[in-house]
Amino acid sequence: MSPTAKAAAVAVWRQLPFFLWLIALWMLLWGQFTVLAAVTGLVVALFVTRVFRLPPVELSGRVHLWYGAAFVVMFFFAVLRGSLLVAWQTVNLARYPGTAIIAVPLRTDDDLIMAHVGVTASLIPGSLIVDVDRDRRILYLHVIGVSSDRDVEAQRASVQRWEERIVRAVGSRAQLDAIRRAPAPRGGAGR
Questions:
Q1: Is the pLDDT of residue 21 over 90?
Q2: Which of 168, 138, 176 has the alpha carbon at shortest distance from 63?
Q3: Are 13 and 6 in contact (CB under 8 A)?
Q4: Closest Cα to residue 156, out of 92, 106, 111?
Q5: CA atoms of 173 and 188, how far apart (whole Å)
Q6: What is the pTM of this model?
Q7: What is the pLDDT of residues 45-76, one digit of tens each?
Q8: CA 56 – CA 17 distance, rounded (Å)
Q9: With bands split at pLDDT 50, 70 and 90, how would you rate the model's confidence at 190?
Q10: Which end of the chain is more exposed for a tag (fewer CB within 10 A), N or C?
Q11: CB atoms closer than 10 angstroms to residue 99
Q12: Nearest to 56 by CA among 15, 26, 92
């Protein structure tokens, strides 16, 4: 195999998960898991990736199934817990749930990891990404249920723990080393 063909094969292999995700997203949007939906999803994915030329998404090529499964389970329970907390804050008339906009510095320098962390934090009830400072690697979140600096630190540490879980599941070795070298998130039990 020539070096050019080998480089092309590596590029296709690294982009394959993103491409499959586009097909799955198409099928989810239509609510159909049929051969026709998969074929039309393939056509749409080809069209989107060829017409709307974006910088290539560099995947690490590393997927750790144990940490990926742990992430999914912990995310499910965080969504459940967040839903119950927000519901309680809504019906608890004795206490107004405090709100804040907090800055969360991330420890890795990767757009894809930053996007995953932002989506994860926004999907858990009680927080929402309001801004991203890509250059300084800072996510800004609007959170509810905070009434002290300790609560703010707990929220910040929670998001940083989600970053760590995502890096452990799909991050590169360099990103994993960056997480290990950075100080551990401080704060109470996070979401």
A1: no
A2: 168
A3: no
A4: 106
A5: 28
A6: 0.69
A7: 888 877 876 666 565 567 788 998 999 999 99
A8: 12
A9: very low
A10: N
A11: 12
A12: 15
